[in-house]
Design brief:
The protein is of the alpha/beta class and 553 residues long. It is built from 13 helices and 21 strands. Bound molecules: 1-deoxynojirimycin.
C-alpha cells in the first residue's frame, strides 16, 4: 500500500485520564434484557452488578445504562414517572448505589440515561396538570393547546408522533397536549423556568450519587419552534435526519446544554476526571451535531450518520472524513456506533439475507470502528455476535412503535431479546433458574452463543471482541488523535495508517465479496476473519471477503 495523503492532524499517543471520554469504549446495558437477578423474567440492577465482571473482562471503559427509573414502562422506561426513584422492577436506589460502587471498584465508569424531553403521563406534574384543568399555570409545564375546528376536535397542528399517529392527544376537558412519542409521554415545555430548575436538580441528584455522566435522550427535541408551526407534510418521520422540522434541533436547545455543562464541570472529581454528557441528537448533518459539542456544551454525540451507513467502502470513507472534520472543528471526539436498542442489530443489517455473511461483516465493522480516533459504543450482545430476532410472535411484543404502526418493520423488540449467559435451556442464565421466565423468548440457537459457550473458543466472536479491546488498550494511540491517513487501496477496500510516537498502526477493510491481496505493511495484530483464512506473507497479505486486519507498522 502506498501512501495517499489526506489531512491527518498530529496524533497524540494517549488522552489524559481526566478526558477519559475522548477515546472511551462505552458499553450499553439495556437493563431489562441484560441479567435478571431475582428470577421474575425481567433484567434488574442487582443482575447488572453481578455481571459487571463480564464487562471488565471484555475490556470496556464505561457502561451506559438505559433508564431504570420509576416508570409504567409504556416505552420501556423512556416514560419516567419519578426521575429520582428506581422502578421496583429494577430494584432500589441502594441497588443503583451498589452498582456504581462495584463498577468503580472494577475500573468501569457509569453513565445513566436522562430523559428530559418528556416524562410519563403518570408523572406527578402531569397528573396535577390534568387535575387542575384548562388555564391552570400547572399546565404550562407541558404543551397544552385548544384544538382546531368548530369544536376544537382537530389537533392544534399537523405534527406527527415519531411512533405513528398525531403528536397530540385530547383530554376529557377538550384540550390537547403534545407528545412527540407515545401519548403516555407528554413533552415538557422547556420555556418554563420550573422545568429548567427541576432538571438541574435531577442532574445533581445523580451526580451526587457518583455517576460519571449522562446520555441525553432526544437531546435535539427539548425546544420547539415559536408558535408550534405546521409542517405541511405527511409522513414526517421520513424527513427526520435529513430536513429541519420545527420540533427538532432548534437553536434554543444550546442554551440548556451550556447551563448543564456548568453543573457537570462543577462536579469534576478531585483528581480532575470529568463527568460527561452524550447527546442522542438526530440532526440533518454531522455539522449540526457538532454544534452540541462546542467547548461549553456537551462532550459527545452519537454518530447516527455512521450507524446508518451501509456496508460500502466509499460511503464509509465519506462519513468517516465528514465526521472527523466536523468534530475536529469543535475540538470534540468523533463517536462510532453500529447498534443500539432502537435499531436492527448490525449483524442482521449487513447480512443481505445470509446470517454468516452478516456476522463476518459485523466483525469486520467492529475492527474498523475500534481503529478510528474517538470513542466507540458497543450495544450489549454484539460481543456475542447476536443477530436480530425477526420472528417474535406479536403477542409478546412490547414496543409502542409496533402497536402504533402497521407492521413489524422498524420496531425494536428484536434487538432487545435477553442475553444468553450460559446453560442448555432458556433463558440461558439470563435468570437464575433454567427453564425460568424471560420477558421476551430467546431462540434455541442462542445456547451456542452464550458467554459461557464462547469463552475460551478462539474462533468465537466474544474472544474476538476481548482481543480487539485488549489490543486497543495496549496501543493507546488507536483511539486517540484526530485523523486517519488514507492509504491507496483497491476498489472496495479501505486502508489507513495511524501514526504515533510509540509506533504506527495500519487497518485495512475488504468490503468486497472476493479476497484481495495487499502489500503487508507490518506485523499482524488481529484479523476479523479466522486466522487461517488470512494468508499473511512477509510481502503480501490476502484479505478474505468482508474482513478487516490490523497491523503494527
Ligand atoms: C430515544 C430512545 O433511545 C428510544 O428508545 C425512546 O423510545 C425515545 N428516545 C423516546 O424516549
Amino acid at each position: 500500500m502506498t501512501q495517499h495523503v489526506t489531512a491527518a492532524p498530529a496524533l497524540t499517543d494517549s488522552v489524559p485520564t481526566r478526558e477519559w471520554w475522548r477515546d472511551a469504549v462505552i458499553y450499553q446495558v439495556y437493563p431489562r434484557s441484560f441479567a435478571d437477578g431475582n428470577g421474575d423474567g425481567m433484567g434488574d440492577l442487582p443482575g447488572v452488578t453481578a455481571r459487571l465482571p463480564h464487562l471488565r473482562d471484555l475490556g470496556v471503559d464505561a457502561v451506559w445504562l438505559s433508564p431504570f427509573y420509576a416508570s409504567p414502562q409504556a416505552d420501556a422506561g423512556y416514560d419516567v414517572a419519578d426521575y429520582r426513584a428506581v422502578d421496583p422492577m429494577f430494584g432500589t436506589l441502594t441497588d443503583a448505589d451498589d452498582l456504581v460502587r462495584e463498577a468503580h471498584s472494577l475500573g468501569l465508569r457509569v453513565i445513566v440515561d436522562l430523559v428530559p424531553n418528556h416524562c410519563s403521563d403518570q408523572h406527578e406534574w402531569f397528573k396535577q396538570a390534568l387535575r387542575e384543568g384548562p388555564g391552570s399555570p400547572l399546565r404550562d409545564r407541558f404543551h397544552f393547546r385548544p384544538g382546531k375546528g368548530d369544536d376544537g376536535e382537530l389537533p392544534p397542528n399537523d405534527w406527527e408522533s415519531i411512533f405513528g399517529g398525531p403528536a397530540w392527544t385530547r383530554v376529557e376537558d377538550g384540550s390537547w397536549y403534545l407528545h412527540l412519542f407515545a401519548p403516555e409521554q407528554p413533552d415538557f415545555n422547556w420555556d418554563h423556568p420550573a422545568v429548567k430548575d427541576e432538571f438541574r436538580s435531577i442532574l445533581r441528584f445523580w451526580l451526587d450519587l457518583g455517576i460519571d455522566g449522562f446520555r441525553i435522550d432526544v437531546a435535539h427535541g427539548l425546544v420547539k419552534a415559536e408558535g408550534l408551526p405546521d409542517i405541511g407534510h405527511e409522513e414526517q418521520v421520513k424527513l427526520l435526519g435529513s430536513q429541519a422540522v420545527p420540533y427538532f434541533d432548534q437553536d434554543g436547545v444550546h442554551e440548556i446544554y451550556r447551563d448543564w455543562r456548568k453543573i457537570l464541570d462543577e462536579y469534576t472529581r478531585e483528581d480532575g476526571t470529568e463527568r460527561i454528557a452524550v447527546a442522542e441528537a438526530w440532526t440533518p448533518t454531522v455539522e449540526r451535531s457538532a454544534l452540541y459539542l462546542r467547548p461549553d456544551e456537551l462532550h459527545q454525540a452519537f454518530n447516527f450518520e455512521y450507524l446508518t451507513t451501509e456496508w460500502d467502502a466509499d460511503a464509509l470513507r465519506a462519513v468517516i472524513d465528514r465526521s472527523l472534520a466536523a468534530m475536529n472543528a469543535v475540538d470534540a471526539p468523533a463517536t462510532w456506533v453500529l447498534s443500539n436498542h432502537d435499531v436492527v442489530r448490525h449483524s442482521t443489517r449487513f447480512a443481505d439475507g445470509d446470517e454468516a455473511r452478516g456476522l463476518r461483516r459485523a466483525r469486520a465493522a467492529t475492527l474498523l470502528m475500534l481503529a478510528l480516533p474517538g470513542s466507540a459504543y458497543i450495544y450489549q450482545g454484539e460481543e456475542l455476535g447476536l443477530p436480530e430476532v425477526t420472528d417474535l410472535p406479536d403477542e409478546v411484543r412490547q414496543d409502542p412503535a409496533f402497536f402504533r404502526s402497521t407492521g413489524q418493520d422498524g420496531t425494536r423488540d428484536g434487538c432487545r431479546v435477553p442475553l444468553p449467559w450460559s446453560g442448555e435451556r432458556a433463558p440461558f442464565g439470563f435468570g437464575p433458574v433454567a427453564g425460568g421466565p424471560s420477558w421476551l423468548p430467546q431462540p434455541d440457537s442462542w445456547k451456542d452463543l452464550s458467554v459461557a459457550a464462547q469463552t475460551g473458543d478462539p474462533a468465537s466472536t466474544l474472544e474476538f471482541y476481548r482481543s480487539a479491546l485488549a489490543v486497543r488498550r495496549e496501543h493507546p494511540a488507536l483511539g486517540a488523535g484526530r485523523g486517519v491517513e488514507w492509504l491507496e487501496a483497491p476498489e472496495g477496500v479501505l486502508a489507513f495508517r495511524r501514526t504515533s510516537a510509540t509506533g504506527d498502526f495500519v487497518c485495512a477493510v475488504n468490503l468486497t465479496s472476493s479476497p484481495v491481496t495487499l502489500p503487508t505493511p507490518g506485523t499482524p495484530l488481529l484479523a476479523s476473519a479466522e486466522a487461517d483464512a488470512v494468508a499473511a506473507g512477509a510481502d503480501e497479505t490476502v484479505l478474505p471477503a468482508d474482513s478487516t486486519v490490523w497491523w503494527a507498522a
